[in-house]
Amino acid sequence: MKSKGIRRRWMANSISVVVLVVLLAVTAFSTAMASYYYNYIQNGLASQANVTARAYRDFQTESEYYQNAKRYAEQLRMEEKDANKMELQFIDSAGAVRFSTSGLTPPFSTPGTPDIEAALQSDPPAQGEFVGNDPSTGERIMAISCPLIVDGRAVAAIRVITSLRLVDRQIILVVGLTALVGLAILAMVYFSNLFFVRSIVEPVVGITETAKRIAAGSYGIQIEKKYDDEVGDLTDAINNMSLQIKQTEKLKNEFISSVSHELRTPLTAINGWAETIMNGEVRNATDVKKGMGIIVSEARRLTNMVEELLEFSRIQDGRFTLAVEPIDIKAELEDAVYTYKEFFRREGIELQHTDCEEEFPPISGDPERLRQVFCNLLDNAAKHGGSGHRIDTAIWREEADIVIVIRDYGPGIPEEELPHVKYKFYKGSSKARGSGIGLAVCDEIVSRHNGRLDIGNAEGGGCIVTVRLPMDT
Question: Which of 136, 179, 392, 393 has the most CB atoms lying inside 10 A of its own CB?
Fold first, then answer.
């Protein structure tokens, strides 16, 4: 219904404007043509009337005028000169027709048209014009009357008339042809607009249907791109959204599966050792201590995982905040290194820290959040690059930034996975434990500190993580 509404509104708005313009153009052209034809005929009639009137100005009496007029009219009738074009009438002072060149007008008939009244009765006498129906025949005519003045008064009038039947027919023909041209223009505009609107509406309808299918769960479906314009841009946006939703849905499912597995593994260990110890199956104090250690370790891992999930939930809901205060960034990094150093040593991983001698001024930040970033990055380095049995950390100043680097000597990250490692739920091809949201949380924390978290592969092998934090200015 919306597409139909767009088509209807577009056609109504565009066609109405074109109809108005064409109507005005046809009207103006038709009026101009009618005016041209009528003015041409009027000028011809006036010229003939004036020429004839000047020829009769030398007669001093009415009798001389009438004798000559009768002779001239009979001569023209015999010659049939201009019989089909115009009629010349000699009007007496009473307004009656005395003689006519066509012989069709009855003698002493009185047309009584305004042009005769203007020529005979106006003061001073003047040329008169008339366009209308002939009182005797009802035919549309044009008439011009010129007064014949003797001793300062109009004693008669020369009247030239012509039928407008052929002229009106010609004007009607011109108007009809103009109207047909206007209709042709309207048809062209209509069909061109119809084609144009269809080129917009049909892709929109297709996009709408695809959007409904995406909303119904058909993630990843693509729309064929037919136009390289705004509609094409919309198609690209919908296609990209569909792929992103598909990717997010895939990551979510993988995340649920991964988290379920990550939760099941420590819970299985905790339940197994707890039941074993509770049932008295282990009596040796060393084995009991070992079992309790496993329970504590797995419980701690569960706690960290839950905290990580809660942290990510706060970020997603907008409830993530920073408790900003002046901090010693070197001390925070050293505390994290010290915390993990002994633990890594027991795992067979050497943790080396390179510190610069330069003292850094305190920077504004949340110490707990930044320590969380350092610990998470160290934990990731051990999980994914621990096979290299070495992890290096360093800190230095670079212009207005403080740079922290954590590098492992493991297998590194496949190049095709590097752009996605900071995405939520993304684990790539790694088989290490984890929810896939740790780096996303770290990236959010660093970004909230106006810093940047970069992850790449180091020369010589392994992965290198660089954290850049701005110093206060």
Answer: 393
